[in-house]
Amino acid sequence: MELFNIFDSFIGFCRHEKAFSEHTITSYQHTLNELYEYLSEVYGKEIDLSIIDADDLRPFLGWLHDKGLQKNSLRQRISAVKSFFKYCHKKGIIISNPASLISTPKRDKNLPTFLQTSEINQLVDIFKEDNLRSARALALVELLYGSGLRINEALSLNNADINFRESTVKVTGKGNKQRVVPLSKKSSEALTKYLKYRNDITSFEKNAVFLADNGKRLYHSAAYRIIKNSLKGITESKKKSPHVLRHSFATHLISNGADINSVSQMLGHTSLSTTTVYTHLSIEKLKDSYKKAHPKA
Q1: For domain 117-293, is the CATH number 1.10.443.10?
Q2: DSSP letter for each residue of 231-296
């Protein structure tokens, strides 16, 4: 079987059997293209997976590092390569799995960026215009911050997922796992206003909550641009992505005494250890307040 056919078969497996998100699928495809580029440099165009061993794959990581990839990006590439060779071994394409001997570098422990409460207030105050775009941006911001959604989760929402009467929203997260999270009063108000504007569009995708100007479901890059542009002038942080609002949601909840297990469930984390980073943020905030206020600090 030709290598690109094996790639296609693996991607199909990830999409249909593993139910990976399109973001993960795209990342895996990109990694496979890089792997092919690297192997082509070593073996030429005729690549036989059966002769590749761990000593052939380890230099691939150095090859990626020379391209400027940071540790966390390397972790993602290694994960994709491990999954690919595990699949090939399981399907009998190769006799042994060379990637099983490749170690994964530890994750950089960078604390996530979040906004102060005052910055959140400034952010929502900028959407003063009485039009579709302003109402859409406010609804998106309120939902990301008010319910802690990932941007892909917000963009995949359908009308039936929002229950205004119960003040909840049904979210489809990673691996198509569903969860129900609270819908804040501000989010409900912003969504109600936005949906009135949306329903005035002559032709649009009926099920989708968030729409682009052409009436189709709002795509990731456009939503990212809306949030990034909105955060300019609000925060000095270099990171101005939708995820900053999700981080702010979790940080503010834990800082104000919310139970970490409840926050973990609302975020859709599969492991509680993933949520503990927000506890660290809360502690750092306390330390900062202590240093500023205590005369002997």
Answers
A1: yes
A2: HTTT---S--STHHHHHHHHHHHHHTT--HHHHHHHHT-SSHHHHHHHHHHHHHHHHHHHHHH-TT
Greatest Cα pair distance in the chain: 72
Asked about 243 being catalytic, the answer comes back as yes
- Domain spans in the chain, listed from the N-terminal domain onward: 3-101, 117-293
Q: 3-101 has which CATH code?
A: 1.10.150.130
> Contact at 8 Å (CB) between 14 and 24?
yes
Both structure tokens of 27? 């990342």
- Whether 45 shows a pLDDT value over 80: the answer reads no
Q: Which of 136, 150, 198, 252 is catalytic?
A: 150
pLDDT of 139: 97
| pTM for the full predicted model | 0.62
The active-site residue out of 75, 269, 280, 285 is 269
Q: What is the pLDDT of residues 70-98, one digit of tens each?
A: 777 888 899 999 999 999 999 999 999 99
